[in-house]
Amino acid sequence: MKGACWTRVPWVSLSCLCLCLLPHVVPGMITPSLKTDGGRRTATSPPPTTSETIISTTPSTAMHTRSTAAPIPILPEKGVSLFPYGAGAGDLEFVRRTVDFTSPLFKPATGFPLGSSLRDSLYFTDNGQIIFPESDYQIFSYPNPLPTGFTGRDPVALVAPFWDDADFSTGRGTTFYQEYETFYGEHSLLVQEAESWIRKIANNGGYKARWTLKVTWVNAHAYPAQWTLGSNTYQAILSTDGSRSYALFLYQSGGMQWDVAQRSGNPVLMGFSSGDGYFENSPLMSQPVSERYRPDRFLNSNSGLRGLQFYRLHREERPNYRLECLQWLKSQPWWPSWGWNQVSCPCSWQQGRRDLRFQPVSIGRWGLGSRQLCSFTSWRGGVCCSYGPWGEFREGWHVQRPWQLAQELEPQSWCCRWNDKPYLCALYQQRRPHVGCATYRPPRPAWMFGDPHITTLDGVSYTFNGLGDFLLVGAQDGNSSFLLQGRTAQTGSAQATNFIAFAAQYRSSSLGPVTVQWLLEPHDAIRVLLDNQTVTFQPDHEDGGGQETFNATGVLLSRNGSEVSASFDGWATVSVIALSNILHASASLPPEYQNRTEGLLGVWNNNPEDDFRMPNGSTIPPGSPEEMLFHFGMTWQINGTGLLGKRKDQLPSNFTPVFYSQLQKNSSWAEHLISNCDGDSSCIYDTLALSNASIGLHTREVSKNYEQANATLNQYPPSINGGRVVEAYKGQTTLIQYTSNAEDANFTLRDSCTDFELFENGTLLWTPKSLEPFTLEILARSAKIGLASALQPRTVVCHCNAESQCLYNQTSRVGNSSLEVAGCKCDGGTFGRYCEGSEDACEEPCFPSVHCVPGKGCEACPPNLTGDGRHCAALGSSFLCRNQSCPVNYCYNQGHCYISQTLGCQPTCTCPPAFTDSRCFLAGNNFSPTVNLELPLRVIQLLLSEEENASMAEVNASCVSSSIYTAWGEHCEHLSMKLDAFFGIFFGALGGLLLLGVGTFVVLRFWGCSGARFSYFLNLAEALP
C-alpha cells in the first residue's frame, strides 16, 4: 500500500531470572598458628589483656591493626630437593640386613680437614652418622645419640645428619653413596652444584672442591623396624678443597616421618664434633622434640629453603701439602726429559769448592751451619747440594731452571718435608730421582802458568815459550763444544814469553756461542769481555767473602781479587789470575769430553804417551828434547784471526826462546836466586830466564795451588756402610753395625738422643721409649784428611700392642723428622691405633640409663622397654597401638597428634611452644603470629588474660559478625548468611531486573516510531516515484 509506514518491531519476552549475585561462601577455618624463621610453629599471641584484630589480606602480607606492629614476612614453603641418588646417578648401594652396620672405609688421598686435624679415613653408619675413626680398626656404629648433644669433649669425631637408632634388618630401606675425586679439576655436575651452594652460603666465591662424598639414607626405619611407623629419607654431602671442609644436610620434603612418640631414648642429634674441641649442634637441638624429628621443615635463612642445614667443619684454614704434592705429581712425567742422571753432587764442601762448575748459593731451607752449592746446565738441568758444618754432604736435589730455584724446591717440601705420608716422597723421587755423590766424577784440570809451563789434561808437564796465539784445547761431544785459546807476549827483553790474554767459547744444543775474553792490564788487573762487551761485576751477597759475580745466559762469571773465573753452562770452567804482570790459568773439562780433545793441553784419555799429538796426527813421545816440544807447540799456533782478534803488535818472524838446559849450564852465578825454589823446575826456569827470584817464587806458588786444588778434587771423605732403614719395636734394643772404608774414621751422632747410643766403631743401639720426633744423623770423620760423611737413615718404630701386628711397610712420619711410625694390623679382638684396646661390649655406649658391665655388656633395658640393653624400645605397646588413630582435629593450632604408648594408646598432642595445655588451645608463652594464606578473610577478636596459667574458661574468644554474615563454630570456621540480609538481597535483585526490563521496552518502542526515514523499503516498486 503506497504511502504506508511499515515498521519491524521486535517482540521482547521478559523473563524473571533469579540470578544469584551473592558472593561465593566457602566454609573455612582460621588458625592462629604459623611458621616462624626457625621452622617451628607458634600461635598468634597478642600482648596480655589487649584486644587485637588480625586481618589476613593477601598472600604477601600479614598485618596487625596496631600501628606499632611491623609487617610479618611470609616465609617460603619450598623444600630442598635431594641431589640425584641411586643406581641411575652412579651411586653404589650398601646395606646390611642387621640392626647395625657400617660402610667401607673412605680414604681421601688429601685427607679431610676436621676441626684442627687432617683425618685419614671415614665411614658412615646406618644410624645417620659419618665417623672419623682414630684407626682403621676402631669401627663402631654408636646407635645412641649423646644425651647432652655435642660439647667439644666428645670421644668420637663425627658428622651427624640424623643420629638416631635406625634399623634396616627387616628388608626395608637402604643407603647409597658415591665418592668424587676432583684433585685435578675433573668435571662433575654434582660437585659443581655442591660448590655453588657452599659459595653462596659460606660467601666463599673461590671455593673449588677436590674431594666430595655423597651419602643418602633412603626409607630408613627407626628401631625396631618391624613395629615402628614412618621412614626417613635424607642426604649428607661432605666437601673439601684440602684446606677447608663443609657439610650439607638435605632432608626430603615430607620424607622425615619417624614418630616422635615411639622414640623412647635420647632424641635425635644433628651437627658435628671434630674430636679435638670444635663442634656445632643443629639449631633444632634447642627446639621441642617434635620439631627435631622434622628437619625437613627447618628453614635455612641463607638459602631460603626448608630441609637444608649447612656446617663449616674446619676450625681454621691450613695449607694441604698432600694435595699440593699430588697436583704437582700429576703435572710431571714419570721420568724427567732432561738429563737427570748425568750429574751428581761433590762428596764434600771442600771438593765442591774446587769444582768451579758449582757455585755457592743461599736457599734458606736448612738451619745454621748448612751450606749449598749449585750447578746448572741449559740442556740437562741442574743440581743443588747441601753440606753440614764439617763439609759433609747431606742432601742433593735436581732442579731444571736456576731462576726458578724456589719454585723447583717447593714440590720437594710438599712431598717429603711438610706432610706425614712417606709414600708421597717416594712418588716425588720417581719424578726427581735422588741425588747423591756416589757417581760424582771431578772435572779434569789443566794449567798454564809462569813463562808458560803447561800441565796437560793427562798430567804431563812441559814448558813452551811460543810467541803468538795458540789453541790450548778444543773439545766437543754430542751436545756441546768448547774452545780455549791463549795469547803470549815476550817477557820484557828475555828470551821467554808469558800469557797476556785468554779467550774461551762455548756452544751447546740449546745455546748459541758464548765468548769470554781475559785481557791483562797494568797492576795485575784483568779486563773481562763477554761477547765483546766489558763486564761490570756486582757484589755476590750469597758468598759473603768479597766475591763479585756477573750472571748471563750460558755463563757465570765471578771475580775474587785478581782472579776471574767463568763457568760455561755448568759444564766447562776457566779460571785466570794475574800475578807479576803474568796471566796464569787453569781449565777444567767434564768427563764427557774425554777422548775428544786436542791442542796444547793434549789428548785426554788417561794415556800420557800420546799427549803431544800434532794436528797432522803424528805424536812426539814424552821426554823428548825441548826443541822438539817447542816444534810441537808451534803446530797449534792459530793462523789468521782467532777468538782474541788481530794483534796490534808486530811479532818477530824468527823468535826462539831460551831452553831450560841452556839456563842450567850457566846457573852458577844465580845460586842465591834459585835457592828458595827447592828444586822446582818451573821456579828455577823463570828465575834464571828473567833474572827475577820474585817471579820464580810466584810461579812456584801458583803451581802448588793448582796441585793442591787437583788433590782436593780427587780426595773423598770416608764412606758409611750399613742399613739405610732402621726398624725397632718399642722397648726392645736393636743393634746395627756401621763401617767405613777409612781406618781412622770415628763415628758420632750429630744430635744426641736418649733412645740412641753410637760407639766410635760404628755400633748403633736403639731402644725406642717414646714417639717424640727426632732426626737420626750418623757422622763418620777422618782425622787424617779432615773430611766427613753423613748418613740419615729412615727410623721406623712399631708401637703396636704385639710385635706380630707391626706393618713396617705402612708408615706415617712424625713431624718434620726422620722418625716414622709403623702401622698396626689388629687381631685377636683388639682395636685402636696401636691395637691397645681389647674388644669389649662396653666400647659402645648402652641405651641411656642402662649400665654396662665390663666383659659382659649392657644390662637389661629400663622398665616398659624391651631390647638388648644397647637397643631398647617399647615393642609391646607399639604393637598394641598400631590400629589406633587420632580423632580428626583433636589437636588445635596445628599441634601434632599421636597415639601414646605409655598412656594406654590415648591420643596425645605435641604442641607448638606457645601453648601450655595438652591440646594446644591455651597460649601462655611468647610467640609471633603469622598467616595461613589459603584461608578466606576472617575477623576474629581475641581477649586474652595476662595470667600465665589461664584456664580455658578465662579465654574469651568471640567471633565478630558482619552485617551480612554470621561467623560461628569453635574456631569461627563456619559462615552463615543472616535471613533478613538474604531476603533483602533477593528482592532487591528482582526489583532491579524488572526496572531493567521496563527501561529496555521503552527505548525500543521509541526507536521504532521515530519516522519513516529510518524504515527499509519493502520492494523496488515502493522505492520508485
From TrEMBL:
The chain crosses the membrane at residues 981-1007. Residues 50-62 have a biased composition (Low complexity). Residues 1-28 form the signal peptide. Disulfide bonds join C911-C920. Residues 882-921 form the EGF-like domain. It comes from the Eukaryota. GO terms for molecular function: ErbB-2 class receptor binding. SMART domains: AMOP (SM00723), NIDO (SM00539), VWD (SM00216). This is Mucin 4, cell surface associated. Residues 444-644 form the VWFD domain. GO terms for biological process: cell-matrix adhesion. The lineage of its organism: Eukaryota, Metazoa, Chordata, Craniata, Vertebrata. Residues 317-432 form the AMOP domain. The keyword tRNA-binding does not apply. One of its GO terms (cellular component) is membrane. Keywords: Disulfide bond, EGF-like domain, Membrane, Signal, Transmembrane, Transmembrane helix.
